Amino acid sequence: MSYQANEKGYYGEFGGAFIPEMLYPNCEELRQNYVRIMQEESFKKEFDSLLKDYVGRPTPLYFAERLSKKYKTKIYLKREDLCHTGAHKVNNTIGQILMAKKLGKNRIIAETGAGQHGVATATVCALMGIECVVYMGEIDIARQAPNVARMKMLGAEVRPALSGSRTLKDATNEAIRDWINNPVDTHYIIGSVVGPHPYPDMVARFQSVISEEIKWQLQEKEGRENPDFVVACVGGGSNAAGAYYHYLDNEEVGIIAVEAAGHGIHSGESAATSALGKIGIIHGSKTLLMQTPDGQITEPYSISAGLDYPGVGPMHANLFASGRGEFISITDDEAMTAGLLLSKLEGIIPAIESSHAFAIFETRKFKENDIVVVNLSGRGDKDLNTYIDYFKLA
Ligand SMILES: *Cc1c(COP(=O)(O)O)cnc(C)c1O
């Protein structure tokens, strides 16, 4: 059994492409070409060279000595926080902009909630000199002013979604409408391992550079490629998919996924999809999502914008349903405490998303000789105001 996607984009019973007929040609063009293009020498060369010189890869695999001492196990941090733009997201947007160019597209669209994916997309569009339109809910535009400003500086047009709750799902609807109307010249960059096939698999492959590097870096440091556990936070699931990728089918490596429990799993304000989700269709993919008994998507909540998503990608739904992955939910308070601890013990201020992953060490015990790799998905600069308010730092 494999935990990778099959030909049709299914991970077990999850995945597929549940899309309106009008979107079929767009997805089909991508589906027919993505693997072939990714395997072309010229593509690989350009992708690798941009990851190296533009993103700053390989990112270090750092042995966190003081953290390890505190929790009596061996903890390594994969430093995605050191990527250009401050998180792993750019690995995927670089890959997709190159894919768009190969497919002859000269216009990019994206949707964004908190603005992180919008910024990563606007960044690579500036790099390539390609027109960029980012859809964003009107409410989110008001809440995320710094990221809106960044996108504008980078030359992107930010279009407000004015319907519904004026947040992420409404922005997604607008982006899909745009893509249907512009199938020939436009590529839609999705920011996580979500959406219709082939997006989850394509994004996972672009992010798989993370575990590819972990393998040789751990070999250098520990004389073995495989850690005992890989830990990552899961919003849609892209940083986690990248960190797990080369270990998915090696059951000697434990996979730990950390979700946001917000104010508590059963508080009515959380984003703990594995605990609360049921099978349904979101964003063109069959997966686990939080919904009401009659199938309406529930509004998620987390203190971290990146984990504030009502579903998970189909890879993760399958890791959960099959038992291959161990899923742990972490509350806002636990994550904030862990973020402060990492800052004090290692001199690294993590994104609040990543703080969730570190919080597991308070309750999940590991053996002294276990090697635990934690994917540090992003840096905390963007979250400084949330840390300030929470800890009354100013
Ligand atoms: C966007 C984001 C996430 C969540 O997205 P995934 O697709 O689940 O990785 C996690 N961490 C950071 C720093 C992010 O910016």
Which helices and strands, and how do they pair?
Elements: E1 10-11, E2 14-15, H1 24-39, H2 41-55, E3 61-63, H3 65-71, E4 74-79, H4 89-102, E5 107-112, H5 116-128, E6 131-137, H6 138-143, H7 145-153, E7 157-161, H8 168-181, E8 186-188, H9 199-207, H10 209-222, E9 229-233, H11 238-244, E10 254-262, H12 273-276, E11 278-282, E12 285-289, H13 314-322, E13 325-331, H14 332-346, H15 352-359, E14 371-376, H16 384-391
Parallel strand pairs: 4-14, 5-6, 5-8, 6-7, 9-10, 9-14, 10-13
Antiparallel strand pairs: 1-2, 3-4, 11-12
Helix pairs in contact: 2-4, 4-5, 4-9, 5-7, 9-11, 10-11, 14-15
The chain binds pyridoxal-5'-phosphate.
Pyridoxal-5'-phosphate binds next to helix 11 and helix 15.
What are the salient characteristics of this protein?
4-stranded parallel β-sheet; globular; 43% helix; single chain; 394 residues; binds pyridoxal-5'-phosphate; 6-stranded mixed β-sheet; Rossmann fold; 16 helices; 2 domains; alpha/beta; 18% strand
